[in-house]
Amino acid sequence: MNKTVFLIIDGMADLPIKTLNNKTPLEYAYKPNLSSFLKHSVLAYPSVLGKLAPQSDSGVMADLGYDPIKYSTGRGWFECLGLGMEPRSGDLSLRVNFGRVDNGLLKEVRVYMSKPELHQLEAEINEKVKLEVPFEFKSGEGYRGGLILRSKNKPFSPFVSNNELGYTAKFYPHGKKLSFATDVKSKRVKKIKAERAEAAYTAGILNEFVEKSSDVIKRSSVYKDRKKEGLEVPNYLFLRDGAAADPELPDINDKYGRRWAAVVGMPLERGIAKAAGMSVIQGVHEEQDLNIDFSNKAEATTAALRKFDAVYLHIKQTDAVSHLGKYTEKYMILEKIDKIVIKRLSSALNQSNGDSLIITCDHATSSILRRHINSNIPVLISNDKFKASKEFSESSCRSNHINQIKKATDIMPFAMKL
């Protein structure tokens, strides 16, 4: 069977930036190794979620062929699953950020810490926070974590708001739920509230957890040592996207008749891959050194292609620098992806024998606005059935998009027919 690599470069799409000659980072980046895939390719420029600015969970689901509005019960399920926790229907699984709040006002929604620091705070929260219900907290990468409230006598309700500014929960029929990136009009941090009467108890437990966890964090040695060293200190937990039910994604191997593997380093994407039935390649981590990180992921993808028909490869760093407004770093990362990952894939994939490479992103992230936006996403599909494309960028995809792909959920069905 022909081989396929589905590469999602997180937050790759952007808006034109004046100091980059009014080009986006993707347009500005020098990508010579991509030329071998452009020789036989088509381009698309689909919407992800229309007028709504998607998070990574909805974007990745859509790219992989799962309609988020049909399947998503809340991002927290995937985050906790990807962290090695065991979310169950009736429990409440949430995504967590370590942040900072001063006098009730948001100062920092992301306080990056080392893994030892995160593990220390994880241990103290689990040991010292006392609630009337069992819970499990686990730290993730950088500033992230996952929380599961374990149901005892009655199930928890997902109909609660987020306390992280900039992400608004939206509810759909049949218990489906998504959060979307929104403007932050006020820095005032609010408590989690029940969006339906049935969720009052759940909201109360969550607010109690936030309050008690904040006290534990501020008394911790991590907090005291970072403050002494003049580093950004965490003092607050932001919770969002609580899920109380399994999203029940159809098995991707059965859906497309191919054996799928995933090369992913972040908990969210690992959780989505697991939920979709992919074999998650072990030993893949997020490395600070991009040369090491990209080389490891390229080699893991190449090795997986020997055993599997298709590989989902996810690269996160472009989104991270976008949120920090570092558009120069963004185009440099894209150049490094071309130099290391794309170059390696050009050797691993047999382009003259029907192998395919799909490159896209889960959403656009504006480096100027420092947040997700609702722009369409660029898509490159390389296969020897197609003629040449000149360039891969937002503008080229907008001008040369194929009609068969109007929504992100159309990408995978189209590619799997090649």
Short structural description:
This protein is an alpha+beta fold and 418 residues long.
List the helices and strands and how they pair.
Layout: E1 4-9, H1 25-28, H2 35-38, E2 41-44, E3 53-54, H3 56-63, H4 68-71, H5 75-82, E4 92-102, E5 105-108, H6 115-128, E6 135-139, E7 144-149, E8 167-172, E9 176-181, H7 200-219, H8 221-228, E10 236-243, H9 252-256, E11 260-263, H10 267-275, E12 279-280, H11 290-305, E13 310-315, H12 317-323, H13 327-348, E14 356-360, E15 364-366, E16 371-373, E17 379-382, H14 394-400, H15 411-416
Parallel strand pairs: 1-13, 1-14, 11-12, 11-13
Antiparallel strand pairs: 2-17, 3-9, 4-5, 4-7, 4-10, 6-7, 8-9, 14-17, 15-16
Helix pairs in contact: 5-10, 11-13, 12-13
What does this structure look like?
The protein has 15 helices and 17 strands. It has 418 residues and is α+β, with helices and mostly antiparallel strands. It folds into two domains: 4-72 and 248-416, Alkaline Phosphatase, subunit A (3-Layer(aba) Sandwich), CATH 3.40.720; 79-243, no CATH class. Strand 4 (92-102) and strand 5 form a beta hairpin. Helix 12 (317-323) packs antiparallel against helix 13 (327-348). The longest helix is centred in the C-terminal third of the chain and has 22 residues, at 327-348.
Q: At the third CATH level, what is the topology name of the largest domain?
A: Alkaline Phosphatase, subunit A
Outline the low-pLDDT stretches: none
Major sheet attributes: 7 strands, mixed
Q: What is the class of the largest domain in the CATH system? A: Alpha Beta
User: Roughly what fraction of the amino acids lie in strands?
Assistant: 15-25%
